[in-house]
Design a protein that fits this description.
Elements: H1 3-18, H2 23-26, E1 28-38, E2 41-51, E3 54-65, E4 72-82, E5 85-97, E6 103-105, E7 111-113, E8 117-126, E9 129-137
Antiparallel strand pairs: 1-2, 2-3, 3-6, 3-7, 4-5, 4-8, 8-9
Length: about 140
């Protein structure tokens, strides 16, 4: 057997053994957690996303408190800026949360460009008004 044939056979074996990667298997996953504290009150929100040619949002979950004899809300936004042009790509709110209750915010596969700056902003509030605002960059 010639050396060219041996190399082709070896390459075929390696490809067969490794298998072809599907696009989902190739995508990396990232997450970012935005936190804030104002006195005894604190909030925390984690956003999970796929990293490819753009960010594809997968899951958002957060909690805050204490809400004493009250319920709270999370107001979630994802922003994107290139130069001076800023766009809000995602806005969603979840209300009626009990103290330190974790709430999920559906993000529905929202796509965010990787160019420029992309960041998460979460405002935690109760009926008396805003308690604290958390920010974190997507990376």
């Amino acid at each position: 057997m010639g050396s060219g044939v041996k190399r082709a056979a070896l390459l075929a074996l390696l490809v067969a053994a490794g298998g072809a990667l599907t696009p989902a298997a190739q995508a990396a996953t990232g997450s970012v957690t935005a936190k804030c504290t104002e006195g005894a009150f604190s909030g925390r929100f984690t956003l999970t996303y796929d990293i490819g040619t753009e960010y594809r949002l997968r899951k958002g979950r957060g909690a805050a408190g204490p809400y004493i004899a009250d319920t709270g809300a999370m107001h979630v936004q994802v922003h994107h800026r290139v130069g001076t042009a800023q766009t809000t790509l995602f806005t969603r709110s979840t209300t009626g949360l009990s103290s330190d209750e974790a709430g999920e915010v559906p993000v529905n596969g929202t796509k965010v460009p990787r160019s420029g700056r992309a960041w998460l902003e979460v405002r935690f509030a109760d009926r008396s008004g805003e308690k604290c605002t958390a920010e974190a960059d997507l990376r």
